[in-house]
Specification:
heterodimer; A: ABC transporter involved in vitamin B12 uptake, BtuC; B: alpha/beta; Rossmann fold; four-stranded parallel β-sheet; two-stranded parallel sheet; about 15% strand
């Protein structure tokens, strides 16, 4: 396995596995709550956060995570009580984030070349310190799902029943959006802004096609994501392909196979 | 078959040497010459690639990982070069280290140090120090190679100095601010087109300012960038009747001129005509 003899590949696979598993689990909850497009909205909103962090000269990961967290919670706030439709709020932050990035680029010249690197990401260029940040975020995301799993399942299937069981709906929604924001920032690290939402949507969608229960959907989504990450990095390594495209391509191929199986078996 | 054996032998010899990687082509010839017979030198990104927006491929990262030493500009030239510095600490040599760099306000540091032969003397010495630090046994060979390179660079410097000292025009009007070091080191002045982004997005206001500046200084030409098709150049030609001359800023191999020295001589021939040097 020549692949594993390089430390940059090892770091890439480790990062990809953590990001893939975290985003796939979050994806199952988001898709079932009809919030699949939240990923695309927040990843583009994060573009604005990255631009600001470059303008201020601070670490892009932490500031972008905080920025995306703020934007995600604003989306949740303005959509609660149906004040603004959810899809419209996501479209708002989607374009708002990109507009912010373009404005920052226009005002502060000289770092567009650094900013554009975030559009497609490169998982094989992860540094040790970035790997540590990803690991910490990954464990925080896992901890959240482990602690609140039951409440989240209740909330996903029926807000009314969740209310009857004393689940604090508002708080829970804000927490889920916060975790989704963190997961999006992790996904940007792996596949870039443009493809980040695929990490959330595609493995979860595949799992929901073939799983027999909610729990199995979560497990299958994580497995599909982990498999696609390894397949994508291996293909990228041996055929000199862009890793982000290869990973997402792998995820879509698995989805295609699952869909075909579903169609044929019905 | 018999003919193939010596070729294969030579090939195996070149690959058995340690790999030295140079981030961009303008530094390649100088660094390669210094490492000659001790290192196998390769350039990382293609000469025509956009330095600012280049994305490293997997094979590029693999090369960086396999290289014993990696020479980067140290400015850095783009996110990709910055990333190389981050992931290969300990084997990176910043060729501009110790050099007084030109800061251009909001645009940032001017990276085009290679367009001044005087700066390349410092680059060559930096490359030599880098090689010696990982190959002390090869010091004699490396020192001999450095001497040869320095002689060539000093010849080029003398040629630039003597030619540019005899120019009637002392201003370098250029569509991209790439000639700052050349201007500073050889007693010229650079005027350039700036804008939202140095490689495009020029506002009409900035374009008008540039044209007015050229006219007010009595200039009838503008220097454009070879290998980079420019809408600006064609507008300047057709709308304002301004002549354009192409400077090979990125030292891209062109007909008959394939290495740093011949391309720099070609650039000087362009400047000689544009600046009316006697």
């Amino acid at each position: 396995m020549e692949l594993l003899s390089y430390d940059f590949v090892q770091r890439g696979i480790l990062t990809g596995l953590m990001v893939g598993v975290a985003s796939a689990i979050a994806g199952v909850f988001l898709i079932l709550r009809r919030m699949a497009f939240l990923g695309a909205g927040l990843s583009h909103a994060a573009f604005g956060g990255i631009a600001i962090s470059m303008l201020l000269g601070v670490d892009p990961f932490i500031l972008t995570a905080l920025f995306t967290l703020l934007v995600g919670n604003i989306v949740q706030l303005i959509t609660s009580n149906r004040r603004v439709p959810g899809d419209a709020a996501i479209a708002l932050v989607f374009s708002g984030g990109v507009a912010l990035a373009v404005l920052v680029l226009g005002v502060a010249k000289g770092f567009s070349e650094y900013l554009f690197g975030y559009l497609f990401g490169n998982i094989l260029m992860v540094t040790r310190s970035e790997l540590i940040l990803v690991s910490i975020s990954f464990f925080l995301v896992l901890l959240f799902f482990a602690i609140f799993y039951r409440k989240l399942v209740l909330l996903t299937f029926s807000e009314e029943i969740a209310k009857l069981r004393d689940v604090k709906i508002g708080l829970m929604n804000h927490m889920l959006v916060s975790v989704a924001s963190l997961v999006i920032v992790l996904s940007i690290k792996a596949v870039g802004i443009i493809l980040a939402s695929s990490m959330i949507v595609v493995p979860a969608l595949t799992a929901l096609l073939i799983a027999s229960s909610f729990r199995s959907a979560v497990v299958i989504a994580a497995v599909v994501s982990a498999f696609s990450v390894i397949l994508g990095i291996a293909l990228a390594f041996y055929y000199d392909l862009p890793p982000s495209g290869a990973i997402v391509g792998g995820m879509i191929a698995v989805f295609g196979a699952a869909f075909l199986k579903r169609v044929l078996s019905s | 078959m018999i003919l193939l054996i010596p070729i294969l032998f030579l090939l195996s010899l070149s690959y058995s040497k340690d790999l030295a990687l140079v981030s961009v082509y303008p530094f390649y010839d100088v660094v390669k010459h210094i490492g000659e017979s001790r290192f196998y030198t390769e350039v990382l990104i293609p000469p025509k690639a956009d330095y600012h927006h280049y994305e490293l491929s997997v094979s590029d990262i693999l090369k960086v990982s396999k290289a014993e030493i990696v020479f980067v500009s140290g400015v850095p030239l783009g996110g990709w070069e910055q990333k190389i510095e981050e992931i290969s600490k300990g084997k990176v040599v910043r060729l501009s280290e110790g050099m007084e760099l030109i800061r251009m306000g909001s645009i940032g540091v001017d990276p085009h140090i290679w367009l001044s032969p005087k700066r390349m003397v410092s680059v060559a010495k930096k490359a030599y120090e880098g090689f010696v630090s990982i190959d002390p046994e090869g010091k004699e060979t490396l020192r001999r190679n450095l001497r040869e390179v320095l002689e060539k660079l000093e010849d080029l410097d003398r040629l630039y100095s003597s030619t540019l000292a005899r120019c009637r025009v002392r201003v370098l009007p250029v569509v991209h601010p790439a000639l700052g070091y050349l201007a500073k080191d050889y007693g010229l002045e650079q005027v350039y087109l700036s804008g939202g982004h140095v490689h495009g997005g020029i506002s009409p206001k900035e374009m008008l300012r540039f044209v007015k500046e050229i006219e007010s200084r009595g200039l009838d030409f503008v220097l454009t960038i070879y290998g980079q098709p420019s809408k600006i150049a064609s507008i300047l030609r057709s709308e304002y009747g301004i002549k354009t001359y192409e400077i090979n800023v990125k030292i891209i191999p062109m007909d008959g001129n394939v290495d740093y020295f011949s391309i720099m001589e070609y650039n000087l021939s362009v400047l000689r005509e544009a600046l009316r040097c006697m």
